[in-house]
């Protein structure tokens, strides 16, 4: 090699994968096995990989091979594999989810046309914890006990109902805290009527914590959503409407408290159409789950980390945040989400713009031309040019959205269809 000018600088030349204990064909057998399992959604752990590699080596008559962690690390690198954290679990395949999403989009858009809907909303309740302890930590290798300091409040939480619309507007979060019921029934009725379920002393603290913040706080013994809160929620956000107003549509998941007859009757009296997000498919059909909740939780987690740092810097011990602290974090986290983040939830669910694969025929468009034309006539959509300043679909926005379909990986081509004002 050194005798040739073109290779004189190369000290050695060896193709990747040579000089390995398992041959290329044997390693390829392991790779095929992994790909087949992942195609069926079966998890492949490091232990499973070790056992499979040892089995292949034994079948080939190779002795003394143990598939150590160093071999596994190099094997994964050679074949462009990596250990990934699961982002979704269940029995539903991606293909099934895509079919459900397409049917859901079609049903929603058809109802928008049929009822001349003026606005599309999505509401979703999510837990807000007092502590966000990470599942993993950096520590010395080989330690059998990995201790993490905390205040013991990692399971304490409050519930927040978040509401946004397809124009990117965010409504005041509806928050539910745990509040003890009074043993005197008449006093409990008074608490619910005048103080959102809190006693006199607790109500003063709640009022102080929410002063100057765009929050609505209620309390009940479990700190979870129920039928009464669904009615309060609708009354707060839609109580100014009447049955003769132009209808609006609210996407809600299948929680039973959202679909009682009392809730449906009240919504109908305010011209609010309910649309149920397909059960078990909220991860792809609900804008909040698709685009809002992750950046929202990331901001809450960042505030808890800052609280942890402040504690260690001042008192060398960890204290749990107070309720008013968590309410402040919640308010700031929700307020900091950009308009594009909220809009992207509807976009990625196919409820606002059309998702067109770059090489797909026209027939594969989710909302066909006739449906789009009908939407335009009903003024549910208006056509305007998308400028470079619009950050809908921008890969750098808060939602983490990229210009690709979340379910198929296909490129999303902006079409200029936006929600009408």
From TrEMBL:
Alphabetically ordered keywords of this record: DNA-binding
SUPFAM superfamilies, per database record = Homeodomain-like
- Every HTH CENPB-type domain range: 14-85
The GO cellular component terms are: nucleus
Question: This protein is called what?
Answer: HTH CENPB-type domain-containing protein
Recall the GO molecular function terms of this protein's record: DNA binding
Superkingdom of this protein's organism: Eukaryota
Organism per entry:
Pythium insidiosum
Q: Read off the Pfam families from this record.
A: DDE_1, HTH_Tnp_Tc5
> What are the start and end residues of every segment in region (Disordered)?
1-23, 382-421
Checking PANTHER family in the record gives: HTH CENPB-TYPE DOMAIN-CONTAINING PROTEIN (PTHR19303:SF57), TRANSPOSON (PTHR19303)
Task: Name the residue ranges with Acidic residues bias.
Answer: 388-397
Q: Does the keyword DNA-binding apply?
A: yes
Question: Which residue ranges does UniProt annotate as crossing the membrane?
Answer: none
